[in-house]
Amino acid sequence: MPVTGDADLIVNRGRGPEIAGTRITVFDVMDYLKHDWQRDRIAALFRLSSRDVQAAIGYIETHREQVEAEYQAILERHHSYRCPPDVQAKVDRCRQAAERRLAKIHGL
To answer: At CA 39, angle to CA 34 and CA 44, rounded to 5?
Structure first.
């Protein structure tokens, strides 16, 4: 279902506004805008046209309050996520092994 008049470039298929024909959300674009990336650089990263990214930027600007609120909710969910204990133990073991390999490489 289209959510903008810009040639239906922004759609919402149930997981938030995204660039039509992709799985790139306006929140993905927003991550890079917050780090001062320019439109064409974002387009190159995601292999999109500048027009696609501009549509996302336009959507963000037009719906700023709503997009910011949803973006903050996503960040909070991301930061509060905890792996199941067995997965976290595996991650910790891999991290420790990687640190040992790096120390060996650097002669520490």
So the answer is: 110
Prediction pTM value = 0.68
Q: What is the pLDDT of residue 6?
A: 59
- In this predicted structure, the answer to whether residue 89 has a pLDDT above a threshold of 70 is yes
pLDDT digits (tens, 9 = 90+) for 30-52: 999 999 999 999 999 999 999 99
In terms of C-beta density within 10 A (0-12 exposed, 13-18 middle, 19 or more buried), how is residue 35 classed? Answer: exposed
Q: 12: how many CB neighbours lie within 10 A of its CB?
A: 14
d(CA 13, CA 40): 25
> How wide is the angle at C-alpha 76 spanned by C-alphas 36 and 47, nearest 5°?
40
**Residue keyed to tokens 């040992």:** 100
Residue position matching structure tokens 């805008």: 33
User: pLDDT band for position 1 (50/70/90)?
Assistant: very low
> Which domains, from first to last, does the chain contain?
10-82 (1.10.10)
